[in-house]
């Protein structure tokens, strides 16, 4: 599943490996906020991180609890 995160400064992240075509492997916290909407991620930064994550690694999805955290989509 592809999920996205907007960031303003890539220099704030620890780059573990630089790949071809601007693709990098970076270190993020073990609990980081992402969205399934690329457009929504654009609202949070100039750079968009796109990540492929197995569903078993997703801790919380806002649709699981109706009426709670609706702004967190």
Walk me through the structure:
This protein has 73 residues and is mainly beta. It is 7% helix and 29% strand. The chain is built from one helix and four strands. The protein has one helix spanning 38-42, and strands spanning 2-7, 14-18, 24-27, 47-52. The strands form two sheets. It has a two-stranded antiparallel ribbon with strand order 1-4. It has a two-stranded antiparallel sheet with strand order 2-3. It is globular and about 40 Å long.
Q: Kindly report the oligomeric state of this protein.
A: single chain
Query: What structural class should be given to the helix and strand makeup?
Result: mainly beta
General form: globular
Mean pLDDT figure: 80
Distance between the termini: 15 Å
User: What would you report as the Rg, rounded to the nearest angstrom?
Assistant: 13 Å
> How would you write the strand order of the largest sheet?
1-4
SSE order and pairing:
Elements: E1 2-7, E2 14-18, E3 24-27, H1 38-42, E4 47-52
Antiparallel strand pairs: 1-4, 2-3
How is this structure best summarized?
This protein has 73 residues and is mainly beta. It contains 1 helix and 4 strands; from the N terminus they run E-E-E-H-E.
Structural descriptors:
73 residues, mainly beta, two-stranded antiparallel sheet, two-stranded antiparallel ribbon, 1 helix, 7% helix, 29% strand, globular
